[in-house]
Amino acid sequence: MQIIPYSELHTILKSVVVNLLNLSTMKLSLASLLFAAPAAAFAPSGSFGVPRTSLNMSTETEEKAFAKLPATIKPGVVTGKALQDLLQNASDNGYAIPGVNIVGTDSINSCMEAAAKYGGPIMVTFSKGGGQFIAGKAADNTDDAASIAGAISGAKHVHEVAKLYGVPVVLHTDHCQKAWLPWIDGLLAASEEHFAQTGEPLFSSHMLDLSEEPLEENIGICRDYMEKFAKVNILLEFELGVTGGEEDGVDNTDVDSSRLYTQPEEVWYSYQQLSTVENAMFTCAASFGNVHGVYAPGNVDLQPVILHNSQKFIAEKLDNGIDKPMLFVFHGGSGSSVDDIKYAIEGGVVKMNIDTDTQWAFWDGVRAYEKEHHDYLQGQIGNPDGDDIPNKKYYDPRMSLRAGQEAMAARLCQAAEDLNCVNVLN
User: Fold this and answer.
1) Which helix (H) or strand (E) holds 423?
2) Contact 123, 329 (CB under 8 A)
3) 392: which of 19, 135, 182, 337 is 20 to 30 A away, CA to CA?
4) Which residues are part of the catalytic machinery?
5) How close are the terminal C-alpha atoms of the chain, in Å?
């Protein structure tokens, strides 16, 4: 019997293992050749820049998270195809999503708390100034560094906690003028990085407000950004005409009143130009007399019929059987009459911005808390119950802030009623 030395046995075994591995690789390669071509032939086309994966392949067998919504829409941050499906569902079913300007986690959480209560989606909206406030007013804002960092920080907060509220959340940014485009560039870079890691952008959508520019320049710049957004599943919101009033650094209080009303031809031109971008998703903030802020009755002349006329104009041009081809958004919603809101929704509005009313609601909650507990908030020790009794549980910041959160959430539930956005999930 021949005895094989250990070193020679080791070499033989190593050779056997290598040959087995090579054989397995050949089989896998052959399988790929046999099945790759047919699979590619029947694979659905990529949507909004997402690779062809199960992430964007909705099927009838996919389990639905919400009985009344398409299966693509899940609890948490909604982007890409899911966002498009959500907005189309709103248009088809006659409701609009509250779009709420926020300034920190207190207002962010109030939004999601309200959505869980009224049973619908919510849009959390960051302004340039709101982003800076989140980062801290003392932070260096050279080249919009704090505005960018704060908005990114807030967006990451929503990504972490949104699913805990069990509702769809849209992460949006508000008015961005031409001079502020570097702010959007910074946020887009963050979304591109997030997309490379997860297949989804950090932000769901961005608004470009270039309404102060000539129409061709406005839409030309929007189209350039639409091409960038489409690659990472971001929706573009653009503005035609001007929203009056003043909000967070955007002051149109003295604008010519004729600019408050958009013409159907302008909407059609924009629709045509943006539709040439592959995988484009966009909504239009067409002006119909909208004004930021709250004013006495009679001082604002809303004309939602402009939206209806624009839909009819575009539908006739397209002639494809779709009666509401444009998804509109409603700016300056605070203080609007319920009748105007309902009629605007009938004209294709799928989101209404709310800021002034929710700002007041939050403050009013804090004010009411202070009024109720006033005698317990005058010193660290001593109150009507005794001179030596501590007041910590009253002046703990969480107490007054929570009162503000609850009041803001209650105001948003009222807004959801006006927007037909109650119980639209299940």
Assistant:
1) none
2) no
3) 135
4) 174
5) 78
